[in-house]
Amino acid sequence: MGGKVKREKWSENFSEWYNELIETAGIQDKRYPVKGMNIWLPYGLKIMRNIERFIHSEMERTGHDEVLFPALIPETEFQKEAEHIKGFEGEVYWVTHAGLDPLDVRLILRPTSETAMYSMFSLWIRSHADLPFKVYQIVNTYRYETKHTRPLIRVREISRFFEAHTAHDSYEDAERQIREDLEIFDRLAKFLAIPYIVSKRPDWDKFPGAYYSLGAEVMMPDGRTLQIGTMHNYRQNFAKAYNIQYETEEGEHEYVHQTTFGMSERLLAAVMAIHGDDNGLVLPPTIAPIQVVIVPIPKKDAEVDVFAYAREIAEELRDAGIRVHVDERDIRPGRKYYDWELKGVPVRIEVGPKDVEGGKAVIARRDTLTKEVVERAEIVEAVRRTFDEIMENLYNRAREFLESHIKRVDTIEEAKGVFENRRGIVEIPWCGEEECGLKMEEELDAKMLGIPYPEETAKAPEGKKCPVCGREAKFIARFARTY
Ligand SMILES: Nc1ncnc2c1ncn2[C@@H]1O[C@H](COS(=O)(=O)NC(=O)[C@@H](N)CS)[C@@H](O)[C@H]1O
Ligand SMILES: [Zn+2]
């Protein structure tokens, strides 16, 4: 990387730090000749695959079947749900020709797959015995984002778009699914050592076609929030538009209730941003392509063979299921440290002649940059313990940052003060009326994330007043500058 960006200075340099790291850590190459579409490089893709592997295992665990739909959707299908169209008409890419011939029915590249899937749901779902119906896919989707694009965060080809689509026999069972999605998301967040908050979006900002939307937000180093997951309850909106009915046990016909759950490569952006430091990536051991890198430190005219010693340790770690690499390049150890710290390898083991003689090894942690000497004989347990310590430290450090960036206020002035000096999330009383919510967005030049979820936690304390209209505040509303 260029000049080292000190962690504490991230708020001014975060964007520059992030854009440089995408390239220097080997995550993506941004030089592809289509704006907002980047190339996954081997190291970045390995990390993303490790994240996806966890998502696939969660889908397995919760009875979702993986499907794979075409990327092209006929305009006739896209047109069926009015609100959904309205929400996406400015964002879809059109395919209008094939070869030299104009298409009689224009096609869109999927921005998300409701309008691709739901005519098939209508054919597949016939009886209550088919419910709950739960499918998902991880595919590329396309959105003509007009705001500032940014690698992994706001792209026009969302190349690792996770979308789960479910159908249920009742609103209550759809609500159960939303709770299951939140549990899945919580296990994934723990796997990534990332704390988050869930807010119920205001009606003016819910997903097009949804009855309500939940957003999971993380706090980025510059005090802006990033939405890394969404869950939507569609009730019967799409079922009526796509005629998705099932025969009840009493022989009646009912429209299904539906939900969706979406995430993307933003998950990797959050890991990079939240855990990274001025030396580069800091990867949680759960998703690091290389969990341990061993650096042999040979000394001139030393009898012992540090390379053989290093390889033995590597073998033992590999046999214990740990992803390990021995760096035998003929360059200075310091250069090796720099390279692997930049790539966020969580644990480095250094072995010199003295360690061979004494049956020791030095374990260096990437998150705290501290070292400890351990017995060669206990290397597997020592590495596993270090992984646990790193996961706990990364999570606690990030939770402390998130919590210190959530401020409860009573007035617009106080809220403005928060955004002026270090941003973050503001929680402010709200009467629940749209015009007051929109007024506060305008006054604060910030987005309303919504109200805390579940709703029991969203109630305003007794006697609080809406700072816009002065009426009794029903809720606490959250505002933030967002990505
Ligand atoms: N332009 C984008 N670049 C990267 N990730 C994005 C982009 N747009 C949305 N996402 C991610 O994709 C997730 C799902 O997108 S969404 O619009 O909120 N929801 C849907 O599309 C629903 N059909 C659920 S799959 C979001 O939570 C966000 O994390
Ligand atoms: Zn009000």
UniProtKB/TrEMBL annotation:
<dbReference type="GO" id="GO:0004827">
    <property type="term" value="F:proline-tRNA ligase activity"/>
</dbReference>
<dbReference type="InterPro" id="IPR002314">
    <property type="entry name" value="aa-tRNA-synt_IIb"/>
</dbReference>
<dbReference type="Pfam" id="PF00587">
    <property type="entry name" value="tRNA-synt_2b"/>
</dbReference>
<dbReference type="GO" id="GO:0006433">
    <property type="term" value="P:prolyl-tRNA aminoacylation"/>
</dbReference>
<protein>
    <recommendedName>
        <fullName>Proline--tRNA ligase</fullName>
        <ecNumber>6.1.1.15</ecNumber>
    </recommendedName>
</protein>
<dbReference type="InterPro" id="IPR004499">
    <property type="entry name" value="Pro-tRNA-ligase_IIa_arc-type"/>
</dbReference>
<keyword id="KW-0030">Aminoacyl-tRNA synthetase</keyword>
<dbReference type="InterPro" id="IPR016061">
    <property type="entry name" value="Pro-tRNA_ligase_II_C"/>
</dbReference>
<dbReference type="GO" id="GO:0017101">
    <property type="term" value="C:aminoacyl-tRNA synthetase multienzyme complex"/>
</dbReference>
<dbReference type="InterPro" id="IPR045864">
    <property type="entry name" value="aa-tRNA-synth_II/BPL/LPL"/>
</dbReference>
<dbReference type="InterPro" id="IPR036621">
    <property type="entry name" value="Anticodon-bd_dom_sf"/>
</dbReference>
<feature type="domain" description="Aminoacyl-transfer RNA synthetases class-II family profile">
    <location>
        <begin position="42"/>
        <end position="284"/>
    </location>
</feature>
<keyword id="KW-0436">Ligase</keyword>
<comment type="subunit">
    <text>Homodimer.</text>
</comment>
<dbReference type="InterPro" id="IPR017449">
    <property type="entry name" value="Pro-tRNA_synth_II"/>
</dbReference>
<dbReference type="InterPro" id="IPR033721">
    <property type="entry name" value="ProRS_core_arch_euk"/>
</dbReference>
<keyword id="KW-0547">Nucleotide-binding</keyword>
<dbReference type="GO" id="GO:0005524">
    <property type="term" value="F:ATP binding"/>
</dbReference>
<dbReference type="InterPro" id="IPR004154">
    <property type="entry name" value="Anticodon-bd"/>
</dbReference>
<keyword id="KW-0648">Protein biosynthesis</keyword>
<dbReference type="InterPro" id="IPR006195">
    <property type="entry name" value="aa-tRNA-synth_II"/>
</dbReference>
<dbReference type="Pfam" id="PF03129">
    <property type="entry name" value="HGTP_anticodon"/>
</dbReference>
<keyword id="KW-0067">ATP-binding</keyword>
<dbReference type="Pfam" id="PF09180">
    <property type="entry name" value="ProRS-C_1"/>
</dbReference>
<dbReference type="GO" id="GO:0005737">
    <property type="term" value="C:cytoplasm"/>
</dbReference>
<comment type="function">
    <text>Catalyzes the attachment of proline to tRNA(Pro) in a two-step reaction: proline is first activated by ATP to form Pro-AMP and then transferred to the acceptor end of tRNA(Pro).</text>
</comment>
<dbReference type="InterPro" id="IPR002316">
    <property type="entry name" value="Pro-tRNA-ligase_IIa"/>
</dbReference>
<comment type="similarity">
    <text>Belongs to the class-II aminoacyl-tRNA synthetase family. ProS type 3 subfamily.</text>
</comment>
<keyword id="KW-0963">Cytoplasm</keyword>
